Amino acid sequence: MATKSFSSATTCCSELAALVLDVSAKVIDRATELRARYGFKSPDAIHLATAIESGANEFLTGDAGLARCTEVAVTVLVPTAT
Q1: 4: pLDDT confidence band, cut at 50, 70 and 90?
Q2: Hey, which bits of 14-81 come out as E strands?
């Protein structure tokens, strides 16, 4: 599991691009597989499935439990004291 420390959301995400994508039948199928395999909650499974199906090279999260997903590189963001 990769981790990245940050002191603010602006510092963490200033170089990132965000996309808004439709939730397709393929995404729902993949999310169903992720729920069955890892026991993720539906919203988490949908977010991960969307990243996987769209070809994302990294998934950023504050939830270390999602790092169990091996289908996409998961990086856990860890806030630091300011």
Answers
A1: low
A2: 59-61, 74-79
Amino acid in the structure at residue 65: G
- Kindly report, residue by residue over 12-70, the tens digit of the pLDDT: 566 666 778 889 999 999 999 999 999 999 999 999 999 999 999 999 999 999 999 99
CB 26 within 8 A of CB 9: no
Q: How far apart are CA 64 and CA 52, in angstroms?
A: 18
Q: Provide the domain count of the chain.
A: 1
Query: Is 67 within 8 Å of 74 (Cβ atoms)?
Result: yes
Task: Note down the domain range covering 53.
Answer: 2-11+22-79
**Cα separation, 76 vs 21, whole angstroms:** 22
pTM of this prediction?
0.81
What stretch of H or E contains 5?
strand 2-6
